[in-house]
Amino acid sequence: MAENRSEVLAGAAVLAAAIGFLVYAGQVAGLSRDSGSYPLKASFRSVEGITVGTDVRLAGVKIGTVTDLALNPQTYFADATISVRNGIEIPSDSAILISSEGLLGGNFVELVPGGALDVLGAGDEIEDTQGAVSLITLLMKFVGSGSDDAAEPSGGK
């Protein structure tokens, strides 16, 4: 009898942990219903390093998430849709860019507010965008410029 009770309790604990994990995973993946937000759109040259569910931050504080990424077949740019929490008004001349948390960190979407008095409404597009910067490309430019300097003759002799 005691064995059955302990097995039932252990099973209930495992089931509760599994349900908690599924709820957490759904929230992280952006599957939770968040009616307290509004969508904004932006078009990037490259969205390398971000996916649906990536954080949208303003001054380092998470204010939303990326909700959709799609290739625009006319412009060959990546169209992104983000959701921003209600109550946060974004000036119409704001910029949106893909930033990195560091060399080994992940990427996130950063909003840089402008100074306009007009604010963006639901479904508006942020015009000023900056796509992802490839670390490999930057390193290749740095290494390439260093070798060009070394190959130049030192004038004077």
TrEMBL record:
InterPro entries: ABC_MlaD, Mce/MlaD, MlaD_Phospholipid_Transporter. Residues 37-114 form the Mce/MlaD domain. One of its GO terms (molecular function) is phospholipid transporter activity. This is Phospholipid/cholesterol/gamma-HCH transport system substrate-binding protein.
